[in-house]
Amino acid sequence: MTHHLDTDIAILGGGIAGLWLLRRLSELGYSTLLLENATLGGGQSIKSQGIIHGGTKYALSGNLTHASECIAGMPKRWQACLQGEGEIDLSCARILSPHHYMWSSAGLGSKLTTFFASKALRGRVDQLKPKNYPAFFQHPAFRGSLYQLNEFVLDVPSVVSSLVQGLEDRTLSIDWEKSRIEHDTDGKISAILLEHQGEQTMIRARRYLFTAGAGTADLLQRWGVEGPAMQLRPLHMAMVRVPGAQPLFAHCIGTSTVPRLTITSHPDQQGNWIWYIGGEPAESGVKREPSEQIARCQQELTQLMPWIDFTSAEWGTLRVDRAEPRQSNLLRPDAAYCKALHNALINWPTKLALAPNLSDEVLRQLQLQGIAPQIPQPAATSLPRPPVGKPFWEGVLP
Ligand code: FAD
């Protein structure tokens, strides 16, 4: 027997992009179903550093690009949602730090002061007086200048839980070994056929939103269409749990346009902070063995913060790819990406922070195509639902 689920919108992939769209479109009255083949947020989103950028990092190259202009409005959009006053309610999500910081090691200070005082960055960056430094930087041995950015850091698992809360019935687990995308002779998707315990469910949507991150290329292949090309930018992140350490949220600026280190801090269940290390070592360390990557990061940290004792620290590394639309020379894409293809929209937010920007693009496309809410929400089924992904350090650190 085949069950039918008819809906306005089917979303394929439950990372930040798919979940933001699920929440926003459902609240606008669209019937929605989200299909996830693993865990919600467990792709790039929960492995990200959770920084809601305002673009300052991208201005380091000396000229403000389109990327930094487009992203500049994102912190305000998120802030409104976190206060329960935005397009969606994220008031249950946790803010790990109300600010992200930028610090320059001694010697670079004056050059940076001139740059940060430039007109282009006015209102986005404030140089801090030592008495206003966060606890970590108050150590007398700290040398260098510290700037506060109009950016903040989120606990992504709590964002994922908030996005799905109350919409769990609209999420379904899908096993592609037993499922397939059906299409018409003209290439349009006619249905997604999903099999569970010998029973078939046919999902028919007016529009299909592809938000599967690194899995989108495979989905396009299953559909049998030539879609937009994807690029993967591999990263080798490091993490360290230092007993008793203060939380740290900062880019350390060197002489390159890529931060020398980008560190965010994430609490474990025992209340210890885990420092999550990206920036230059994550980009350059893809070919390093985990032990070499740990040694490299330990060397950097010891040099930059000689007052911290790492003797009983626990270290780990995590490899993860950023998935984006293909650019020439593997450059970073400028903004959220949304492209219409038959009766689907192919999407990559390119940054967690750009999820609201992506939802604007999707809504614009739906409006252009005359897709307003029409079909009633299908009744909840007993099909399995995907769980929320685990924090990134689980299974990496003891
Ligand atoms: P994902 O989060 O990868 O979600 C895709 C989902 O689709 C997953 O749940 C996956 O299981 C599912 N899926 C895959 N294949 C299928 C399939 N065939 N069928 C159904 N479901 C499928 N951005 C920022 O703004 N700030 C940051 O601080 C930041 N830090 C980052 C740090 C790292 C280490 C990385 C890797 C990225 C970082 N980013 C950051 C970028 C950001 O994480 C991503 O741009 C964003 O999370 C992508 O969201 P997504 O929903 O497109 O993809």
Automatic annotation (TrEMBL):
Entry keyword set: Oxidoreductase
Coiled coil: none
InterPro entries noted in UniProt: FAD-dep_OxRdtase (IPR006076), FAD/NAD-bd_sf (IPR036188)
Naturally occurring in which organism (per UniProt): Aestuariirhabdus litorea
A GO term for molecular function: oxidoreductase activity
Protein name listed in UniProt: FAD-dependent oxidoreductase
Residue ranges of domain FAD dependent oxidoreductase in the record: 8-320
Key word S-adenosyl-L-methionine present: no
